Amino acid sequence: MTRIERVRKLSKWLIFDGFADNDADLAKKLGYSKSSFSQIMNEKVPLSNKFIETLCNANENINKVWIVELKGSMLKSTSNLLSNREEKKLIPLYDGVVTAGMQETAIMDATQLPAEMIDAGDWFRDATAAMRVHGDSMYPEYKSGSIAALREVKNKRLVVYGQDYLIETSEYRVIKRLQKSELPQNWLACSVNEEKYESSGRLIHEPFDVHIDDVTRLYQVLGNVKRNQSSTIIHASRA
Fold this sequence. Notes:
21% of the residues lie in helices and 24% in strands. The protein contains 6 helices and 10 strands, in the order ααααααββββββββββ. It has helices spanning 3-16, 23-30, 34-41, 49-56, 64-68, 80-87, and strands at residues 90-94, 116-119, 129-132, 147-152, 164-168, 173-180, 186-190, 208-211, 217-227, 234-238. Strands 1, 2, 3, 4, 5, 6, 7, 8, 9 and 10 form a 10-stranded mixed beta sheet that branches. Strand 6 (173-180) and strand 7 (186-190) form a beta hairpin. The radius of gyration is 21 Å and the shape is elongated.
């Protein structure tokens, strides 16, 4: 690997190890702006010795020689825990999931372009992707800002009614609880939030039909993870 490739790997390790929450947070803790950090990582500006020094000082176990002289291993000492961490499965995190039915617009970025790679954790070893949740139609089971761990379903016939799925069409991307529809080629997409309009008594997030052929991607929701913003506590729940 080149120096910049090793810098990228070390940056991801620092985030994974808990030194920072994400690239923006890592840049801040290293004393760089988000844009400056991004330019370095994307080789828009030269990789400086100062940046390498700052990055290596973030953790006393980092082996500076690994980057500067391209020798040895990334860490001075590797415990079983660190070795196991590096072997853990990383999955793509996509942004733009919306759970509020048609009341919000989903960010329909191509799913081939993840925001970052994250560790699925021991509870979600079978996850193939993760997406951030927005909206409140599935509240309180999926809170806005949490991350849903997902497993892609290739065969639509394997849908289990009463389970939660992320449905992606050409128009929207939503997490819903799928039930059997009265229409033979449809699924009934249901919300968990039973909040109603005071004036009419109708559900704010009403169930709606989705034609199975309109679903371009389907993911089973394995569970969700949320972080307490004021601490390093991670709350995970398995579906």
